[in-house]
Amino acid sequence: MVKSHGKKQRARKKAQRTGAGYASAAAGTTHEHTPLPDMAVLEKLPHVAGRDLDLELAARLVAACRSRCRPCQRTLAEKLRTEQRPTLTALAAAVYATLPSPGFIASSTTQGWAPTARAGKADPAAAAEALATVEAMDDAAASDLLEDALDHWAVGGASAEEIADMVTVVPEAPPRQRPADPMDLFREAGVKVFTLDDLDLGDDVDTYALAPAYGVMPMQTSTPDGQPMPMLLLYPETDGAGIEDLEARTDWEHWGLHGMPDMDPLWRVRARIADRSLQGLVHVGPDGEDDVELWRATQSVSLPADWWDLLDRVQHLLVVGPVADPEAPGAMEAAGDAGELLAVVARVAFV
């Protein structure tokens, strides 16, 4: 009995180590798919910095995919999905952070996650969000993401050079700087400047009412690969709102209507599920509090069902502005041609 029990224990451990089924491990009929790819570069991805990865499991799974061994794929993929979400993140990020888009056939899970992974190449906050999102996925969503990623790995995936280039570029990418505060000129001239924080007025003053404000117009556009994407067009509503104000208060890039601007997960469009309405456009600071508020809804207006469904599916949207008269034909195109459009891909935060 002791000998039999020991044999069973060894078989279970072998099955766990190799990913083979218990029966195969017990019978000594396990097999390996060779050559095993070198997955060491995954540890250098910014999306999983500091986390322990199971590189052997990742290599066995990729090798099984390339050998088209379905039994091993199923067993190894289940182990990866349930026990190693950081390794799953690394496998997916190595593909989707190097591609310009996830492609038409990718699942809705991957379509929504890929922009964050791509932004994580140069933005530590986005890289951390990409990992946190995968760790929070339910089993079905994690399965979709892994299956999409493995489709690429099965035919080679991103080359080692592409991944290495991405890893090399990240530490050297200079941070995007906002324009200098014009108040600094007064300070340098010896003029004492008081801010609202200096006055310590607490919650008695609504700073949103003191800054230039914008209106928004929901629209729809397409990604470079033809996928529909929700869009929000900003237009000035108060004096001072315009291109110079947006340049001073945001780090959005100038956009000429071609391609897609960068995704910044710290820019959030809040959408209320209860009445299918948009509530605000804000930037979240390092402390988790809103530090820039460009737009706030004065009343709740339910959005068209098809636009809301697209927003719910994509969970990111293109924010563009400013356009003085958003309803004028060709106004946005004219602003883009004049170099007077700023844009960012923002995250949707459902509340």
TrEMBL record:
Region (Disordered): 1-34
Comp. bias (Low complexity): 17-29
Basic residues: compositionally biased ranges: 1-16
Top-level taxon: Bacteria
Protein name: DUF1963 domain-containing protein
